[in-house]
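re: ur question from yesterday

yeah so i grabbed the chain u mentioned. its 159 aa long if i counted rite. heres the sequnce exactly as i have it in my notes:
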Amino acid sequence: MDYGIICPWCICRESVVLGVKLVDNNKCFACGVANPHGLKLEFEWDGEEYFCDFYTDERYQGYTGVMHGGITATILDEVMAKHLNTRGMGVVTAGMELRYKKPVPTGVTVRCVARQDSVKRNIYVMTAVVILPDGDVAVEATGKFVRLVGANDVKEEQV
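ran it thru and got these structure tokens back, copy pasting raw so excuse formatting
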């Protein structure tokens, strides 16, 4: 089924990475609105800060009352990548490291915030955190993202 819509955050409709054709069909598990089982994350800018708020429904739990770490990792990966995508850079994740400092409870809204730390050629180093409702940081992430050479990046005015 063609939904006829493109995620506004997905920069490249089609790219080739390591010989694999990557096509955005708006069914990304994290942000795709055409994925009935996805997280459907929505992102915002607040100055230099890029974030998404996420309600930790119990369907995302690992242990009772605690959000699954893999879902948390997915959201942090996505907020870091989209931080770059919305600035006109088509990227893919090269690697990510996480530090789980506190459990993320279910039944609350958390804020996931990303920032760019550095860039060297086509490698971007990003950081992201999950902030609990009381303001404590529950999870920290560092990610490396590779800019897709030859990708159909959009111009800033299109973002």
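noticed a couple things. The two ends are 26 Å apart (CA to CA). also The chain has one helix and eight strands.
anyway ttyl
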